[in-house]
Amino acid sequence: MRTTLGKWEQGQLSVRTIGGVAAVDGAPVYRGIGLYATKAWSDDGISPEVLWSVTHASSGYRICAIHAQAARALKLAEELAETVDFTRDLSAILQDKDAIKAAVRAFAERHDEVGVSGSIAGIVE
């Protein structure tokens, strides 16, 4: 189903949590990645801000996090999806782990809003 999110479609996204894998219905999905909002705390520790988790749609592993408004987060995640082939399953990604790790980290270095802590860039060590 096409939405007003440009290239993104609403779909189902797997998200890995401490308790296992959860499904997020209606998440924006494009070229094997999905985006969902989580809360992050501001520097003052009082007001929650939005942190977007960019996730490998089929495995649920986080690829990176983006701290930005929704439109900017979609644009950045789209750039990443067009740079790295995340349409493959996790085993194929792990076979190409060095190249993917380097691409995700280079992407994060180009954009201040992007972080890779706790992401697939670290998992594939």
Descriptive tags:
125 residues, alpha+beta, 4 helices, globular
Can you tell me about this structure?
By secondary structure, the chain is an alpha+beta fold. The protein has one domain. It is 30% helix and 36% strand. It contains four helices and six strands. A six-stranded antiparallel beta sheet has the order 1-2-3-4-5-6. Strand 3 and strand 4 form a beta hairpin. It is globular, with a radius of gyration of 14 Å. The N and C termini lie far apart (36 Å). The model has no long low-confidence stretch (mean pLDDT 83).
The count of β-strands is: 6
Order of adjacent strands in the largest pleated sheet: 1-2-3-4-5-6
Instruction: Report the mean per-residue pLDDT as an integer.
Output: 83
User: How would you characterize the largest beta sheet?
Assistant: 6 strands, antiparallel
Structural class: alpha+beta
Topology of this protein?
Elements: E1 9-17, E2 20-30, E3 33-41, E4 48-56, E5 62-66, H1 70-83, H2 90-95, H3 97-110, E6 114-115, H4 120-123
Question: Outline of this structure?
Answer:
The protein is an alpha+beta fold and 125 residues long. 30% of the residues lie in helices and 36% in strands. It has helices at residues 70-83, 90-95, 97-110, 120-123; strands at 9-17, 20-30, 33-41, 48-56, 62-66, 114-115.
